[in-house]
Write a structure and sequence with these properties.
With 345 residues, the protein is an alpha+beta fold. Helices cover 30% and strands 26% of the residues.
Length: 345
Amino acid sequence: MDNTLGLEIIEVVEQAAIASAKWMGKGEKNTADHVAVEAMRERMNKIYMRGRIVIGEGERDEAPMLYIGEEVGICNQENAKDYCNPDELIEIDIAVDPCEGTNLVAYGQPGSMAVLAISEKGGLFAAPDFYMKKLAAPPAAKGHVDINKSATENLHIISDCLNRAIEELVVVVMDRPRHKELIQEIRGAGARVRLISDGDVSAALCCAFSGTNIHALMGIGAAPEGVISAAAMRCLGGHFQGQLIYDPEVVKTGLIGESKEGNLARLNEMGITDGDRVYNAEELANGQTVLFAACGITPGTLMEGVRFFHGGARTQSLVISSQSKTARFVDTVHMFEKPKYIQLR
């Protein structure tokens, strides 16, 4: 799967990023999302695979979506029955967020990217569009930190694992009212906090790379993005844990469903009988082979954003494979027409 789909999924996220970046700074977050969705769908439908969306986007805020259960791949092309034999194609489960950080794109802020993760059929956890308590940490802390421990305890563990003073650690937290006490505890322990408005997949990724100056992600964010983060962290050997949050009182900013009881019933319908279970990266992305790909839309810590020039654009992407145990940064020039020049930087 790595060899046959690696380049293809890079092109999927590149096309989504380019489409969305054209709306950067225009204040139209739904449009930026919609064009990314359509570009991602169009490119995926050219791939020789039988793909199924298990993590989609848009259900919560009624934005455009690649919906859960949607089938993608070459067999969805017009007249596909004339040349497509589904039985010969690999079956793939796909988790997508065509524009992670729609507000970041709309207002020209850093850190937005197009992301997806794939695995063989059944290899990705089909998370509901709930929230998820998350803990991401560097590979050195994998298996030592624990989401059930306090932030203070985990900071001491990360400090020991990285041989750094707690005062040298930076923790990313979503800037939400629900995190007021968490932020106070992190600061009280001596660590520094980087507040973000959106984009916690990028923050989780950064924990696995030395030099990003991000050492942990803590707090509650969207569950679908948690599965995508877990896929990347599994490939990178980083620590990731997630616990579904089904109680509207906990998140304070709205949740699918009207009540805690109703949400528990919905989980049961999905076959999730223990709503309080803590999942690790290997459980959320349990396939034999897992691939993750991302392309920067606006500039971020790991990747540049899309840079347009006359006749083309330049992108920077990241593709991570559990099979080849590689993390490749891919710098691509896209020539839409005959350019006057090629933008190097």
